[in-house]
Amino acid sequence: MPGVIVITGASSGIGAGFARRYAARGHDVVLVARRAERLESLAEELRGLHRVEATVLAADLADPAAPAAIAAELAERGIRPSGLVNSAGFGTASAFVDEDAARVAAEVQVNVAALTLLTRELLPQLIEARGVLVNVSSNAGHQPLPGLAVYAATKAYVTSLTEAIWQETRGTGLTVLALCPGPTETEFFAAAGSETFKVGATKTVDDVLDEAFDALDSSRPSPVRTVGAANRVQGWVARVSPRRLRLHVAARAVGGS
Fold this sequence. Notes:
Blueprint: E1 4-8, H1 13-24, E2 28-33, H2 36-50, E3 54-58, H3 66-76, E4 83-86, H4 101-128, E5 132-136, H5 149-168, E6 175-180, H6 188-192, H7 205-216, E7 224-226, H8 229-240, H9 243-253
Parallel strand pairs: 1-2, 1-4, 2-3, 4-5, 5-6, 6-7
């Protein structure tokens, strides 16, 4: 019987897309994001279309206390999740020396700390349920990106962490995936305040989800799925290229020198 999937960043974009896909598969969902009104609207949509339970948990993942508070709220409501999709995240775009320190702190908190700690809080239940863990990383995490330094570094962390968890939990029945989309038609670029790093073909949310579920439904799932053939090639080239060349090409690609 389908279990309960907790989805962060569920108010828009890829997170909302995961909520719709999992609800269509008969899963109850817990929707987590800051914007409660958007979550309530999505929850009402999912209940009406798919007759599933859709629970709203409004939380700001930039708050260091949020992961523990989310886990405590789930326990208080008697919700034992079988899945977690960490889709919340945002990026900043400028030279590192020009970045706003408070914004960078929030970026690291949301993209790295909250994802890590919420995963740790819920992982024992996910393993017990033989469920699923999806961490939404990025193609940007495959290489350093001057002009997008913090975002790319946080996503490199997400991919690395997810791969390690994949190995550690092999044989438990848990499915673990780091999903690495490239530019996608979401609110991401508006939130970042720049489209200068929108490099390569832009995918729709449905394109990203099609690849995500293709990976999750595979009989031999890989720990990482990079969305789009061109992005997979780009990621491979980044891994094998000399470091100086890789940095020069990345800087040119995002409009740097």
